[in-house]
Design goal:
- The protein has 199 residues and is α/β, with parallel strands linked by helices.
- It has one domain: Rossmann fold (3-Layer(aba) Sandwich), CATH 3.40.50.
- Helices cover 34% and strands 17% of the residues.
- It has helices at 20-35, 51-60, 77-89, 146-149, 151-159, 180-195, and strands at residues 2-8, 38-44, 63-69, 120-126, 163-164, 168-170.
- Helix 1 (20-35) packs parallel to helix 6.
- The two termini are 21 Å apart.
- The model has no long low-confidence stretch (mean pLDDT 93).
Length: 199
């Protein structure tokens, strides 16, 4: 059986970011994975976490599904703390063994010392900004794609050897005409495209 670790990196700000959308999206992802033969475990960082237990989950997982809001162009600080805590604590056991370089072999380059080469991940974000700001030279992100704007998290997984699936994002989450059903169905389509080869 395939194993997926569902990571909820939401950090609550009362009245501004309560986390309901993140939970709905993560619930939709969990439903999809359970329907398609995965065993699932979850971590909700706002509930707290034990580093040793998280490393056991990281060892167990074949796939990481990360659901997070974007605060000030990056992960919530508690989400970044989680990444720093777990990826660092996994040194030489779960996440990475070295930065990859070798004094004796110049062909071994920086970023090639990861221990997660058999694992994959998918990122899913919620944004206040419109989708039109990405892949737009005149937009706020100056032509960057969604993944380019989130390069730090991608590079963290890459440093540890994991391979990405295409990312997903929900935009304009504070607009009055936001429809959660559209966000959920969009995630479902993205999951089908990533994980159902015949879709």
């Amino acid at each position: 059986m395939k194993h997926v670790l569902l990571l909820n990196l939401h950090q609550k700000y009362e009245g501004i970011a309560n986390g309901n959308l993140t939970k709905e999206l993560l619930g939709e992802a969990k439903k999809f994975f359970l329907e398609n033969g995965y065993e699932a475990k979850e971590t909700h960082i706002d509930d707290g976490y034990d580093t040793a237990q998280e490393l056991e989950k990281f060892q167990w997982a074949d796939l990481f599904f990360v659901q997070s809001p974007v605060y000030w162009m990056g992960l919530p600080w508690l989400g970044k703390k989680y990444i720093d805590d777990i990826f660092s604590a996994g040194f030489n056991t779960v996440t990475y063994a070295s930065d990859g370089r070798s004094r004796h072999d110049p062909s071994k380059t920086y970023g090639s010392g990861g221990l997660m080469a058999e694992k994959r991940y998918m990122l899913s974000f919620t944004y206040n900004c419109p989708q039109s700001e990405f892949n737009n030279p005149e937009g706020f992100f100056e032509g960057m794609s969604l993944d380019e704007a989130n390069v730090a998290l991608h590079k963290t997984f890459q440093f540890c050897g994991a391979t990405p699936y295409p990312s997903y994002a929900v935009h304009d989450v504070y607009k009055s005409e936001f429809v959660i059903e559209d966000a959920l169905s969009g995630l479902r389509r993205s999951l089908e495209q990533n994980f159902l080869p015949s879709f």
